[in-house]
């Protein structure tokens, strides 16, 4: 019976019929009608739980929506002419320029305060690479089929798309910069806009689904809390700073 409630809280109102209805966690919306066996008894047909049905529907909607938004996925796509600009944004949020820039800054920095901030930015960038690689390796969600694999410098786990490493980095760096650099309001707004646009451009380029980027933003936002918690300073890591200041 399709109307039979499967949630235990509802079962007292309308008792389930047969084995199928008694099973916990089955989704009424996905429950097929029982098929009659030759002996006339309803054959048990396994049905997924409500959570599984909702999850699959979300993923299907995500794939559909992301494909529609992938308007720069190729040169011949609807907004294909904007692709070079979006690829420039891709480089602006990539790990290599951020790591190279931070190392360069560290080498040139002459103030202890500047070195402390840059050292923590380096820690944040490495932490981001490690955490994203771990989650990508665990989840193993393939990139959208409409993505062209012409990305700027990738490592092996970058064949997977969940979460977007650009989104985690953009969100984390954005929080980092807003906390540690004294910037005029227009520049602060620009930093936030950059992070948002980098995330959106991942879907437009066809590199990611919307959920990869949404989760990436959340993960990057939280990664900054980890950096803040383990902040490296002459007090928390005296040996590191003593070696450096020699
Ligand atoms: C090789 C290094 C140092 C970093 C790889 C950076 C990269 C390619 C991340 C993937 O980002 P998306 O997950 O947003 O595609």
UniProtKB/TrEMBL annotation:
Cellular component aspect of the GO annotation: endoplasmic reticulum membrane; nuclear inner membrane
UniProt biased composition (Low complexity): 28-43
Domain Phosphatidic acid phosphatase type 2/haloperoxidase: 117-228
GO MF term list: isoprenoid diphosphate phosphatase activity; lysophosphatidic acid phosphatase activity; phosphatidate phosphatase activity; sphingosine-1-phosphate phosphatase activity
Disordered, as annotated region: 1-43
Superkingdom, natural source: Eukaryota
Classification via Gene3D superfamilies: Phosphatidic acid phosphatase type 2/haloperoxidase (1.20.144.10)
Keyword Transcription carried by entry: no
Presence of keyword Metal-binding: no
Family to which the UniProt record says this protein belongs: Belongs to the PA-phosphatase related phosphoesterase family.
Protein name (database record): Polyisoprenoid diphosphate/phosphate phosphohydrolase PLPP6
Record organism: Gopherus evgoodei (Goodes thornscrub tortoise)
Record gene name: PLPP6
């Amino acid at each position: 019976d399709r109307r039979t409630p499967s949630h235990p809280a509802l079962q007292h109102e309308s008792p389930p019929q047969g084995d199928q209805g008694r099973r916990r966690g089955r989704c009424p919306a996905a429950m097929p009608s029982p098929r009659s066996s030759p002996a006339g008894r309803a054959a048990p047909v396994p049905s997924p739980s409500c959570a599984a049905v909702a999850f699959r529907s979300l993923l299907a909607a995500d794939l559909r929506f992301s494909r529609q938004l992938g308007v720069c996925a190729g040169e011949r796509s609807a907004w294909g002419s904007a692709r070079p600009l979006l690829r420039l944004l891709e480089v602006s949020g990539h790990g290599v320029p951020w790591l190279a820039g931070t190392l360069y800054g560290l080498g040139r920095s002459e103030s202890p305060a500047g070195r402390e901030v840059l050292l923590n930015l380096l820690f944040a960038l490495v932490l981001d690479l490690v955490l994203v690689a771990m989650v990508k390796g665990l989840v193993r969600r393939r990139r959208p089929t409409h993505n062209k694999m012409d990305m700027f410098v990738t490592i092996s786990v970058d064949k997977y798309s969940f979460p977007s490493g650009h989104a985690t980095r953009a969100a984390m760096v954005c929080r980092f910069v807003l906390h540690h650099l004294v910037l005029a309001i227009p520049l602060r707004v620009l930093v936030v806009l950059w992070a948002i646009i980098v995330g959106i451009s991942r879907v437009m380029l066809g590199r990611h689904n919307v959920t990869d980027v949404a989760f990436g933003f959340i993960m990057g936002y939280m990664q900054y809390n980890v950096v803040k918690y383990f902040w490296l300073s002459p007090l928390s890591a005296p040996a590191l700073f003593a070696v450096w200041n020699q």
